[in-house]
Amino acid sequence: MNATERKPIEEIIQSLEGAETVFILGCKGCPIGCDTGGQPWVDELTGALEGAGKSVSGEALVDMICNKAVVGIKLGRAVLQLKQADAILVGSCGVGVQATGNIVARRAVPAMDTVCMGDYQGLFPSAERCAECGECMIAYTGGLCPITLCAKSLVNGTCGGTQDDGSCEVSPERPCGWQLIFERLEKLGRLEDLMRYAAAKDYRNRDITDANRRTIRWALEVSQEEEKEAEPIEK
Amino acid sequence: MSKLQERLAAGEFVVTGEIGPPKGTNIAPVLHEAEEYLKDTVVAVNVTDIQTAVMRNGSMALCHMLIDRGIEPVYQMVCRDRNRLALQSDLLSAAVLGIENVLSLTGDHVVMGDHQDAKPVYDLDSVGLLKAMTILEEGSDLGRDMKGNPNALDGAPTFFKGCCVTPCGANPEAQAIKLEKKVEAGAQFVQTQAVYDPKTFETFMKRVEHLDVPILVGIVMLKSAGMAKYMNRSVPGVQVPKNLIKLLSDAARGDREKVSTEICGNLISEMKDICQGAHLMTLGWDHCVPDIIEAAGL
Ligand code: SF4
User: Fold this and answer.
1) What are the chain A neighbours of B128 within 8 Å (beta carbons)?
2) Sign (positive or negative) of CA dihedral B32, B38, B40, B43
3) Is the CB of A177 within 6 Å of ligand 1?
4) Which domain, by its residues, includes B152?
5) How many domains, chain B?
6) Domains plus CATH for chain A?
7) Are strands A87-91 and A107-110 parallel, antiparallel or unpaired?
8) Are strands A171-175 and B160-165 parallel, antiparallel or unpaired?
9) What is the pTM of this model?
10) ipTM score assigned to the predicted complex
11) Digit-coded pLDDT (tens) for B151-193
12) Can you name the residues that pair with A205 across neighbouring β-strands?
């Protein structure tokens, strides 16, 4: 889930400068899950925009704006209203806003901020996080990720900032990741794992390789194109 | 070889001091303090590196100015603000400026300081930085050439490589293990976080006895009972015992400096047989250093 927060209405009005007529597009995926979107949000926003002297040419709620095929079909029914609009105000995460801008030839303006929940959390939102570092080292850290658990992403053990209650120097509510790792390894009888030197990370892994960019791992539509090309050869 | 390294190798009990660069360009007062009170009393003077993430003048410049004044510096380097290119480059720069002692530190997180919105770096950690120094000394660096071979330096530096440890923290065993790693990565001397409890320190020293590196016990001057209480609340790994707080709160305002100096002196004399030196962090009260050394009976 991509967590979102509503932007203040003043900020939205400001970012719509020059757009007299606006189309409102809301996502019914994650924003529903984190209680930021949905029909009440559309209604509230419509009122606010009209109050600010703008006109709303239409509105639509789409299950998942990141699914561009569905958005295309849904918006196909609103072509006229979209044509009238100077801008589309999108209530979704940043992915949805960009997807909208890539499908419709109109200014796509975000109505929400996507807030950090700390790296990839799996498709079912849970407490574990993965920083996609490309060199997984958690075989040696008790199965816990120091990149996401430690505030400084240290790879060679604790800093001097662990508080007496086991929290990190940055916040009493944040456990020290290396303290958690220590406790886990102690329980597993593997404290000697802490002695292993970990070289600094290779930051080339934090970018998408050209090879990956050409595959389904990068984007679904890439794989569709590849399949189209591949078919005749297989026959 | 630096004076600090020489004296420690000779088995002398060594005292180091510390100055913090100012926030601004007015460096005259801190240089005056160093010349007046530290030059003839301590072997080397640490220069802090953007301490507690509060933006200020740089450590390398001040280290260089100390050398000009005949004072040996310990160049503190934190991993918070520079990536591996900048860290290695600064190490080479320090070397050509005649800086030999370098202390590798993780560095307080930016949210502890006065630019909380800054991007924290931590490209290397304190162990990685020690390793980088070792590799530079061997005439290479952390990078690779097009063929995947180590890069060659045109002229290699030599350092006396130091690190820090928190002996009285929440998890001394985790600290001991990390210290073992630091020594393996090249650390040649250790300056500890503040110690107020000689018993706990002794236990820690026994735990790391097998490590062949000199350890200088960290002594932070307690300027008042309020400061001691603040440290107990807010400085991780530092516990000021109640009896010391009482000594400070019982002292009349005018006597505080004297009491504080005595506390430092007593702590050093209590621990001087179980470690190889003391690192004095006076937090601006550098004029007390000569008296602390006398009170310690050194
Ligand atoms: S206190 Fe723990 S989690 Fe926080 S920065 Fe230090 S090692 Fe990382």
Assistant:
1) 155-156, 199-200
2) negative
3) yes
4) 3-295
5) 1
6) 3-141+198-208 (3.40.50)
7) parallel
8) unpaired
9) 0.93
10) 0.94
11) 999 999 999 999 999 999 999 999 999 999 999 999 999 999 9
12) none
